[in-house]
Amino acid sequence: MFESGSRNGPTYGTEFDVVVIGAGAGGLNAALVLARSRRRVAVVDSGAPRNAPAAHMQGFLSRDGMPPAELLETGRAEAAGYGVEFLDGEVEEVARIFEEGAPVFTVRLADGVVLAARRVVVATGLRDELPDIPGVADRWGRDLLHCPYCHGYEVREQTLGVLGTQPAAVRHALLIRQWSEDVVLFRHTLEITGEDREALDARGVTVVDGTVERLLVEGDRLRGVQLAEGSCVPCHALFLVPRMVPRDGLLTALGCERGDNGWVATDRTGRTSVPGVWAVGNVVDPRALVVSAAGAGSAAAFAINHDLVGEDVEQAVQDHRMVKELTGVRPGDEY
């Protein structure tokens, strides 16, 4: 369908069994397993991982404490060792070019490169929308944190704060209490019910009323929170529930259906409602950690390879029958 060519190593304008969009843990693990299944795989990545601000990642067996960039670099090298081809760039469009029969897709990059694929894996992640409070963007992923399972142990037994910018902040404060006895919930714009206050009081979480004006930073370390009313409350680390927005434009443009939660729906293997399209990681699951995204990529790869094997067998049978018909060989004659 497409002519082969080469530019700085990767092959361009050719047909792949699978094109993976996004080279985070989910995308890379999918590519690795598929390549080990002797599938021809290309990975396209824009180079903007969600966890880039974090110095380390935790909770990944055998990789605990590894810098996220190191994990991705190692993953790329492993996948490339099995023949996976990497392209750096932004995917502008994925189009299904055949509506009947086996799905075939074109993947068009911003620089004009077009790839053809029998199957597509979208692993483009999500973006965190942060409140417009001075200091928040600068400290994000450092001492302004989201996931206590990723960072809670490292700030255990310190004075920890929670910004009340989302309704989930109350639950977050109660969760973070597991890592410290000194937890402060900054109510900010959050309305707290009497039932919530009772739970917070029972667990010893202090509620601070007032609007947060800015984060106090000294010596490149968070020292506390300043309120608009003038008071300053010390804390060593601050937690925030951001508004998580999936980077799912490629999926919705293809017509992938959303679930009741508003996110693109998949089955247990990452299969979407559009035949031939899989999605893994934070683009469809806001709760996915690095290790679970990697597992989802593996599950998707298994399912995709089985899907392709079925298609390969069907095509082989059709070709076999055609050869018999053209050569005049009737069933049983060859025996």
From TrEMBL:
Gene3D superfamilies, sorted: FAD/NAD(P)-binding domain
PANTHER family linked: THIOREDOXIN REDUCTASE 1-RELATED-RELATED (PTHR48105)
Keyword Oxidoreductase: yes
InterPro entries in UniProt: FAD/NAD-bd_sf (IPR036188), FAD/NAD-binding_dom (IPR023753), Ferredoxin-NADP_redctase_2 (IPR050097)
Name of the molecule in the record: NAD(P)/FAD-dependent oxidoreductase
Keywords: Flavoprotein, Oxidoreductase
Origin species: Nocardiopsis exhalans
Catalysis: reaction(s): [thioredoxin]-dithiol + NADP(+) = [thioredoxin]-disulfide + NADPH + H(+)
